[in-house]
Amino acid sequence: MKIESIQCVPQKLTISRFQFNLLPLEEIHLPIYKGSTLRGGFGHAFKRVVCIQKGKQCNDCMVKSTCVYSYIFETFPPDDTEILRLYKNVPHPFVIEPPLTSQRIFKKGEEITFTLVLIGKTIQYLPYFIYTFDELGRIGLGRGKGKFHLKSVTSEIEGAGGDGNSENAGDNGIIYSDENKTLHNHFRVMTAKEISDSNNSPSEIKIEFLTPTRMVFDGRLVGRLEFHHMIRTLLRRVSSLSYFHCGELLELDCKALIEKAENIKCTDRDLRWYDWQRYSARQETKMKMGGLIGNAVFEGDLEEFMTLIALGEFIHVGKGTAFGLGKYKIREM
Q1: Dihedral sign, CA of 78, 82, 86, 91?
Q2: Which of 17, 233, 266, 327 lies 20 to 30 Å (CA to CA) from residue 296?
Q3: Sorted alphabetically, which InterPro entries does this protein's record hold (predicted)?
């Protein structure tokens, strides 16, 4: 039985990408992997900005169902959810892609740039992200809480605005500038179909995992990657993002897709386990967050899976995506 690839194309899933440029006002000390620091700093500043019941846990808050912080950062499933009923939380509707440089000390005036990916309904909350990172600059970032200015935010995907009009984001793709404090709301919102249509259907692909990738299968972290591990994980992620953040319940024959994915061969693995750890303020402990990085080559009838794989380039795959884990690129063979 052939599974039409259009089945894997969500009709309502939308994505926008933005580049944030931070200008240090003093020396800033960051770890080698900066995603956790950026995500943690954002979460702390975000709650400080919007929380109306200071000191309370979100789960006990009477306004959690309408709170923008709870929706974006805690992301509880609604009581009437049709999927993931047993899960306490659902995937966050954003991804912070940190700079992949190993540089740890940024001197005054030496820019720090990262990418923010917003998904579905969260795109409308872009001003909250901009205001929060501006506030984080006054709080400070990294060891020693180095201060910075949010210099600018630009639209990484220039072109059609969210209303479908062909209009660029301000001047030179600028959404926000520290110079005039003006926010432009014309930027491109990509659909899953656009992403799908931009990819061909090869019989062989190379996937390069750029940040530690943590996929779980049978309750264990995947150490020896197979193609079906990736497809299982992407199916869960795309389905849940579509349902909780884009208002679409995908009708996918997951069992058939997984069965077909099990027939795709991994013909070359150049992968290694990259260990790193982050400090969890909530759990007051250090947590190991290692994952796979490197290259894997897959060969077979890939047509049905290319939309999922192409979407994964934007939304990442596996655990810890909010702070940039699971970032990969499709490389030409």
Answers
A1: negative
A2: 17
A3: CRISPR-assoc_Cas6_C
